Amino acid sequence: KQVLLANRSGQLLQFAARVAFRLCGSVLSTDLSWPAYRDCLNQVAQQTGQQLHILPLRDAILNQQLTEHEVVETIADAYTRAGCQGLFLPAIDNLGVRLPVQTIVQALKNRTEVRFVMVDGAQAIGQVSCQDFVDSCDFFVAGTHKWLRAYQPLGIGVCGRSSTREIIETCLANWLRDRSLDDPLLRFTRQLDNKQGDGFSETVNISPLFSGRAAITDLFAVNEQATLPSTYQASN
Asked: What is the overall mean pLDDT for the chain?
C-alpha cells in the first residue's frame, strides 16, 4: 500500500476530498462523521461545484437500535436515491459507533457505481485491525497521536484500492508542484520517497516520525490489539 505522511491529518482529508470530487459529482456522508471533517468535505464540494449529501444516522443507531443489516440498507438506499458516486464514512465514530464499512461498500457495488471511498480511521488505528477498512476504500486517513499514543500529531493516509492509485499519485504530484497542497512534512517525505530532494525546502519538524515509529513498534511488540467498546458493533 502507498502511505502518505503529513503534519496534519486534516490536510490529507482535504486532499482526498479534492480527489473524490474530481471523480464524483455527488458524495454521501453521515452525521457520524467528525464535524470538522464534514465541514472540510462541504467546503471542497462548494469549491468544485459538486454535491455533498449528509445522511442523519446517529439517532437511529443509538436510540432506535438499528441492526447491521438496517444500517447497511439505510446507507445504500440514501446513496442510490441521491445518485452518489462517492462515500465518506468513519470506521469508528467519536462515540464508539463502529460501522461495517466493508459490507456497506459491497452493498453499494451490488447496486450501482462506486468511484471513490474515503474512510476516517482516527478512532480505529491502534484500537482495532484496520486491514478491512483499508481494503474497502480508496483513501484511509488517520493520525498517530490518539489511540496509537505517539502523542505528537502525524497524519497518515493509506491508498487502498489499486484502481485509483494512479489518479491519486497524479493529483498528489500536481498539487504539491503548484503548492495548492502545501504540507511541509508531506512534501519532504515525498521527496525522500522519490529521491528528488530540491535542497531548498523549508525547515521541517520530523520528530513526529520518530514518535510515530516508536508507537507502532511498541504496538507490535506487545502483540495485541485492544478492541474499543462500541455502542454499535458490526457483529451485532
From this structure: 90
Q: How far apart are CA 127 and CA 149, in angstroms?
A: 11
pLDDT over 90 percentage in the chain? 78
Residues 94, 114 contacting (CB under 8 angstroms): no
In angstroms, rounded to a whole number, what is the distance separating the alpha carbons of residues 228 and 231?
A: 10
Q: Give the model confidence (pLDDT) of 19-48 as tens digits.
A: 999 999 999 999 999 999 999 999 999 999
Pick the closest to residue 134 from 110, 164, 167, 113 (CA basis): 164
- DSSP state string for the chain: -EEEEES-HHHHHHHHHHHHHHH-SEEEEETTS-HHHHHHHHHHHHHHT-EEEEE--HHHHHTS---HHHHHHHHHHHHHHTT--EEEEESB-TTSBBP-HHHHHHHHHHHS---EEEEE-TTTTTTS--HHHHHH-SEEEEESSSTT---S--EEEEE--GGGHHHHHHHHHHHHHTTSS--HHHHHHHHHHHT---S-PPP---HHHHHHHHHHHHHHHHT-------SB-TT-
C-alpha cell of 9?
491529518
* 165 vs 45: CA distance, rounded Å: 21
Distance CA 182, CA 14 (A): 11
173: closest CA among 160, 162, 186, 161?
186
**Structure pTM?**
0.89
